[in-house]
Amino acid sequence: MSPEQRALYDAIVGGPRASGPALFRLVDERGALEGPFNAFLLHPPIGEALQAVGAAVRYRGRLTDRAREIAILLVAAHRDSAFERYAHEAVGAAAGLSPAELDAVRRLRPGTFEDDAERLVADTTLALLEDGDLDDDRYAAFTARFDEATLFELLTLVGYYTTLALQLNVFRVAAPDGGGRA
């Protein structure tokens, strides 16, 4: 490992992802990074930028844990990203998403959320994934309930996890449980 790769590796395994409960593995039994993080080492300057964005949207955002995980899991389902689904279903369950809610998100049918804010996050995320844009009514609805800063957060979160899903799919990263492509 080059010094740049080592610094990035240490930032990933020693950063906010490593604190708190271990809901999915960051490294395998040999110490290699799991999921999207191993690919980050291919180009450390870009990998460092990505890991910093990921840490910001995951640990310093305004969305509730449940709303954030709903959005991430919708990206995983839309992009058919096995590793993203594996990792974030565990995080989503820990955030309080029920098995029925996880199943609804997996099937891209999140209209079952009782919480209006969560339903709005889900609907907005699906519009972004399907259309790559928000019409004026959706924009107004989201910013009336939240604000533009939270919309920026959601846009960044959807873009970041879409990038990871693309990388995971192209590099054939399967879920450790054997699910998905490898």
The Rg value, from CA coordinates, equals: 16 Å
Please trace the helix and strand order, writing H or E for each element.
HHHHHHHHH
Average pLDDT across residues? 90
Taken from the alpha-carbon principal axes, the silhouette is: globular
Question: What's the domain count?
Answer: 2
CATH architecture label of the largest domain: Up-down Bundle
Assign the structural class, choosing from mainly alpha, mainly beta, alpha/beta, alpha+beta, or little secondary structure.
mainly alpha
Q: Poorly predicted ranges (pLDDT <50, ≥5 residues)?
A: none
Q: Could you outline the blueprint of secondary structure elements for this entry?
A:
Elements: H1 3-14, H2 37-40, H3 44-59, H4 65-78, H5 82-94, H6 99-106, H7 116-131, H8 136-145, H9 148-170
Helix pairs in contact: 1-3, 3-9, 4-5, 4-7, 4-9, 7-8
Give a short synopsis of this structure:
This protein has 182 residues and is an all-alpha fold. It has helices at residues 3-14, 37-40, 44-59, 65-78, 82-94, 99-106, 116-131, 136-145, 148-170.
Please describe what this structure looks like.
The protein is mainly α and 182 residues long. The chain folds into 2 domains: 3-59, no CATH class; 65-167, AhpD-like, CATH 1.20.1290. The chain has 9 helices and no strands. The protein has helices spanning 3-14, 37-40, 44-59, 65-78, 82-94, 99-106, 116-131, 136-145, 148-170.
